[in-house]
Amino acid sequence: MARRQRAPEGETRRRSRAVLKNPRFINFTGFIACAAMIAYALFAQYSLGVDPCALCIFQRIGIIALGAVFLFAGLHSPRGWGRFVYAALVAVTALTTIGVALDHIHVQHAPPGSIPSCGAPLGVLIKFTPMFELIRKVLTGSGECAQVNWQFLGLAMPTWVAICAAALGAVGVVTNTKRR
Fold first, then answer.
1. Mind listing the pLDDT tens digit for each residue in 49-82?
2. 8 inside domain
3. Residue 103 confidence (pLDDT) above 90
4. For residue 26, is it within any domain?
5. Are the C-beta atoms of 70 and 173 separated by less than 8 Å?
């Protein structure tokens, strides 16, 4: 049986750097990061008992959409103008998610009593409310959205979503606009 020769240390480092600069690898890593965020949100909901409000659900949808863009960009690995399309999709999706998270942060920091009281649950609203009115109601927040029932390092979950979406958006835009 022939022995496999080891690559020189400098060659191994060069290969490692090449992988870390590979747009396909970075896009797949962005997808995995989004999947991990959703997995933790589901863990927090079902294991820790942290029920999501309507704004939390919209943030989850934004992270899922961002993950889908990263996945498609990784699978497609476009050249030329196609990479700018993915960069734009990452930017729009990340900015939308950040906007919803910032709105949620605003609702959480509003003075008590300035936020409308809780209305019907989201499931009931979906059944009986027209789509545009439902989106307007959800995005204006409710009393349940004002509760801070989870924190890490002193920051609530919407703040972490905004930070992660900003970081992932920046990485996705830079990765997909760089010359290859």
1. 887 887 888 899 999 999 999 999 988 888 888 8
2. no
3. no
4. no
5. no
Q: pTM for the complete prediction?
A: 0.73
pLDDT tens digits along 139-153: 554 547 667 787 778
Q: Which amino acid is at 58?
A: F
Length of the chain measured in residues: 180
* Arithmetic mean of pLDDT, 95-123: 75
Q: Both tokens of residue 43?
A: 């863990």
**CATH number of the domain enclosing 141:** 1.20.1550.10
Give a yes or no: residue 16 inside a domain.
Answer: no
The answer to whether the CB of 137 falls within 8 A of the CB of 62 is: no
> What is the domain extent for residue 163?
49-177
Residue 43 lies in a domain: no
- Alpha carbon of 32 to those of 81, 107, 125, 129, 177: distances in Å? 25, 29, 32, 35, 20
CA angle 140, 146, 151 (to 5 degrees): 130
Instruction: Check if the beta carbon of residue 55 is closer than 8 Å to that of residue 100.
Output: yes
- Can you tell me the distance from the alpha carbon of 23 to that of 118, in angstroms, rounded to the nearest whole number? 44
> Any residues with CB less than 8 A from the CB of 180 and at least 6 apart, and which?
23, 79, 83
Q: Are 86 and 78 in contact, with CB atoms under 8 Å apart? A: yes
Q: How many CB atoms lie within 10 A of CB 64?
A: 17
